[in-house]
Design brief:
Elements: E1 4-8, H1 19-27, H2 31-40, H3 46-54, H4 62-70, H5 78-88, E2 91-99, H6 100-109, E3 116-125, E4 128-132, H7 148-155, E5 161-166, H8 172-175, E6 180-183, H9 185-193, E7 199-201, H10 205-214
Parallel strand pairs: 1-2, 1-5, 2-3, 5-6, 6-7
Antiparallel strand pairs: 3-4
Amino acid sequence: MKNYQFFCDFDGTITKEDTLNKFLRIYADKNWLDIEDDWIKGKIGSKECIEKQMQLFDNVDEQSLNDFINSIEIDETFPDFLNYLKLQGIDFYIVSDGFDYFIERILKKYNISGVKIFSNKLEIKNRKFRTYFPNYNPECIPASGVCKCNVIKSSRIVTKRVLYAGDGLSDFCAAKNADFLFAKGKLLEYGRSTHFKNLIEFNTFAEIKDYIKML
């Protein structure tokens, strides 16, 4: 049994691409790009960004939304990776600044259940999106919908070391709470620029599995 906990981003890490961004590209009007630009420039936090973007939809077709979600693919090696963690007694948590509506349905598509998820919440009422942020922290520096730092701090067991995997801006703060950081994309660049001690580049969860076997 290995004495670790594993926290993991979802979009672009478990999935092959950012689910929400793809959804906005296909279904939202061009105003979503202006909001995205404000976020990239640091004018607004990610919570405000996704709140405003989801308000752009005033006639949500739930069937089309679910059809879109069914088109999303995950890393093929992820289910086997999850099984390996269970065998090793390593607790696994998804920590995402995305929405539970997307995450839960994507996991269900791949017959994945029993995973603890910390994310923003999304409902559809009267053909409009309603967003909720139960893991928001007003003191969160990046002003994310989900304060990943708080989630890790409140969920970690002192006697266990923290493994974290991610790919983007929302993972920067969370990375500081990790003993081992599995990274790609912008998170990999960040890890290199900050000289993170235990930084491991990855492309698939099969690679992470192989690394954990050596720990």
